[in-house]
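look at this fold:
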Amino acid sequence: MARARKARDRRPSLAVWKFASCDGCQLSLLDCEDELLAVAGLVRIASFPEATRAWTPGPYDISLVEGSITTPEDAARIQEVRAQSRLLVSIGACATSGGIQALRNAADVAEYRSVVYAHPAYVETLARSTPVSDHVTVDLALPGCPVDRGELLEVLAALVHGRKPRLR
């Protein structure tokens, strides 16, 4: 039954991914309310942790990526996300430039780790907090903290309708 339903559902699949971030960009998308409902009807939401626990395995037509890459696990996971995504859009300052986490890039990460964590030996982190584009090919990047919700909706609508987004 599920396979037959999936075969009939020709809407593009959308996955939203979280890395090191405050979730503000996902919340900006949810804050679109009525506009989001119109867009949501045009896509099949395969993964969106802020909105639902439901998850569908890839591949995905559109992936929105929020957050910077800060751990070895993040670096491996973003490679998997890219491999499963036809289009990958980085959203927000964290994903496009490393975000607030990148402030640590000018300091000694080992020193920070020893001061911040009670058991620093259990914390694995990369030497730098980096944008998604340092690790994989990004098809479109939307900066901002948080991302501009109008631009985000425009990108989703454009991608769903197969046209180039009209951005400032």
Observations:
- The helical segments are 2-8, 24-30, 34-40, 72-83, 92-97, 109-116, 149-161.
- The mean pLDDT is 87.
